[in-house]
Amino acid sequence: MAQPRPNERPLQGETAQTLDRGLRVLDVLASYPAGLSVPDIAQELNVHRTIAYRLLNTLAAHRLVRRTEDSRYCLGIGLIELARHVVPRLQAAAYPAMRQLAEELRATACLTIMDGDEGVVLTTLEPRTTPMHIAYRPGYRHELDRGASGLAILAGRLRQPGERREITLARNRGYATSYDEIQHGASGIAAPIQLNGQLAEASIGVVLLGRIDEATFAPHIITAAHTIADALLE
């Protein structure tokens, strides 16, 4: 059995520096929908501009980032193509938790994903034992800073200057709430789905008519988010 040479670390725990930096570029750009310049990205990564430029050129060659007319860089269409393969897995992982939320909380469960500066309702499950509930259409889009599901995703990402107080509050307590923001008379509560502490790309929550009892609903929502994250890591 070969032994590590002196001063050589075992393979376990090692990372590829260039790949790590490239992934960090994507993480940074995910928080800036309008894009960043090469100097901005270099500063975010604490690397020389030449290194940042090479990273961006490589990512652009794979359509993972794109250059705008004003020489800023944004996330590219290649990420959406990759995400198409991830979405069915996310839906499958979320279904058991969503069904449990819908029945236990007697409210419509919804899984929302981030798409640029919008939240997109990926799938919903309605409770089967209530005479009335909210019908929430999959594919519905709304601004990320409106509604509990979008606020939860923002709370699971990097803090931005001037962000709404509700986002900061949601980040501190692990879930977001809203009332009367997307549908008149409706309330929402949602938690970010985070994998190994990475930036949130999705949230799980419920919507219902009237006010939400946070003390009762919040533990269920947070548990569901953790359950889904664990299922995705299996």
Question: Main traits of this protein?
Answer:
Transcriptional regulator, alpha+beta, Tscrpt_reg_IclR_C, disordered N terminus, 234 residues, DNA-binding, HTH_MetabolicPath_Reg, 19% strand, two-stranded antiparallel sheet
What does this structure look like?
Keywords: DNA-binding, Transcription, Transcription regulation. It comes from Dictyobacter formicarum. InterPro entries: GAF-like_dom_sf, HTH_MetabolicPath_Reg, Tscrpt_reg_IclR_C, Tscrpt_reg_IclR_N, WH-like_DNA-bd_sf, WH_DNA-bd_sf. With 234 residues, the chain is of the alpha+beta class. The protein is 43% helix and 19% strand. The chain has a six-stranded antiparallel beta sheet with strand order 5-4-3-8-7-6, with helices on both faces. Strand 3 (108-115) and strand 4 form a beta hairpin.
Condensed summary:
The protein is an alpha+beta fold and 234 residues long.
Fraction in helix: 40-55%
Please summarize the sheet with the most strands.
Answer: 6 strands, antiparallel
Q: Name the average pLDDT.
A: 85
Q: What is the tally of beta strands?
A: 8
Number of helices: 7
Which range does the strand content fall in?
Answer: 15-25%
Distance between the termini: 30 Å
Computed CA radius of gyration, to the nearest angstrom: 20 Å
Strand arrangement in the largest pleated sheet: 5-4-3-8-7-6
Judging from the principal axes of the Cα atoms, what is the shape? elongated
Helix-strand category: alpha+beta
SSE string, helices as H and strands as E: HHHEEHEEEHHEEEH
Low-confidence stretches: 1-12
Keywords: DNA-binding, Transcription, Transcription regulation
Protein name: Transcriptional regulator
InterPro entries: GAF-like_dom_sf, HTH_MetabolicPath_Reg, Tscrpt_reg_IclR_C, Tscrpt_reg_IclR_N, WH-like_DNA-bd_sf, WH_DNA-bd_sf
Organism: Dictyobacter formicarum
